[in-house]
Write a structure and sequence with these properties.
The termini are far apart. Helices cover about 45% and strands about 20% of the residues. A hairpin with a 4-residue loop joins strand 1 and strand 2.
Amino acid sequence: MSQIGRLILTTTLLACVAGSAAAQSTYKDRDHHYQLYIPKNWEGVPVELRGQSSGMVSKWVYKRAMRGYTARIHVFIFDRPKTSAGGAKERPVGDYDRLRRPRAARSFDAWVKRNRPSFPLDKPKQKKVRAPKNIKAAGKVYEGRWKGAGTVRSSTEWYSQFLVVTTDDKEYVVECYSGGVMEKKLKPVFSQIVKSFKLITPSKATQKRLDKAAANKGNLSPREEARERARADARRVKGWRLMESKNYFIVTNMKPSKQPFVEQIRRQLEGIRKLYEEDFPSTKEITAVSIVRLCDDRDTYSKYGGPSGTGGYWFAAGKELVLFGGDKNLTKSVLNHEAFHQYIFYACGKLSPHSWYNEGYGDYYAGAEFAGSKIQKLGAFRMRVPVIKQAIKLGTYVPIKDIIKYEQRDYYSNPQVCYAEGWSIIYFLNRGLSSKKHPWRKILPTYLAVLQETRDKSKAVDAAFEGVDLDRFEQHWKAFIANGRRSKK
């Protein structure tokens, strides 16, 4: 080969290497002591607590879908049981077990059998794992196809590569999966990701922080515990940041240019919280502090775990309220609605009321208009009005005697009508009674008081509607919603 030819070849190879390096970056998880390469077309997404409770610590989503299917990278960590002097297995209560549900999988084998039941676990390939000299680590790589299970499309064939790394006290699992139609394109990418995995030694500063967290474990106040969790989320996923207010920790990835909107959300949260405290006083001090996750758009909201067709949700187990900022007016309405679920859950001693009360009041406050942190107007929630009027006209509404005893599953079986009807009952009892001395004005405060005292929803609804002629109530409710005619004594 000529000197010019060698020069051209060398230049080409260098360009390829440089291009490859530019197309990926090294992700270092200093909290969990590992690193791996993540290609540039993958987006880091915080792990919802439901994922954390199953051992997941990191998640990335492929930005380019194919035929409606996407791909993901998950990292799980499971605490391995230790063997005592007598030979018995002792399960450590580590950072991962602390969050895990009692019946959640506690190892790779158990997790795969539950979540990827058709994945082939035979014939793994041994893999040498890079690790600090003081850590003994062994790796295995599993590869194959499986049918969807759980939240993954059940009729679809998927392709996965797993790397399982075991140390004396931990089991690290890297899962790369995609729809089967993407296997040819992503298989070499997955292999590169799996190959890149490396255990690392934390820096002195990181180790000092981890030691401090371990020393404080179990001694943190609810606020301090929520702050630490919010900080960890903001620290470990690029683009997310933390804002703190009196009653909430706001974790958001909204662009800096949208900071004025984030400030509006913060003020509205505190304003509506103050109103809830006045209208629904708690019998005990509420010490829980919730995280409010404000996603930049619906896409991020969906990738995080937001249910399709929703504008937000309150996840009680995770003490987290999740929203997205695509439509500012919708976001503010959803915020009021979901923030009510969050507040009333704690005001009732970690118990959610009947859906007509819980969802009805959520929608009642969703119609609030704010000026700064103060409510300027509390009007009808417009999106519910035509639905319930039509249901009354056609006779397709749920009889009052039934809906006030509906459990959540009943309510959700006919959501469009039930949500509108729940709102209309609350609106009627707040706005449709002509006199302050009307006997039906006792219904809502009685329900709350009995629920807080007894923690029994059946007793609460029976006490609230005791002595009320429900047929007459239904007629007056329909007259107000359909024609605006207020109920007299």
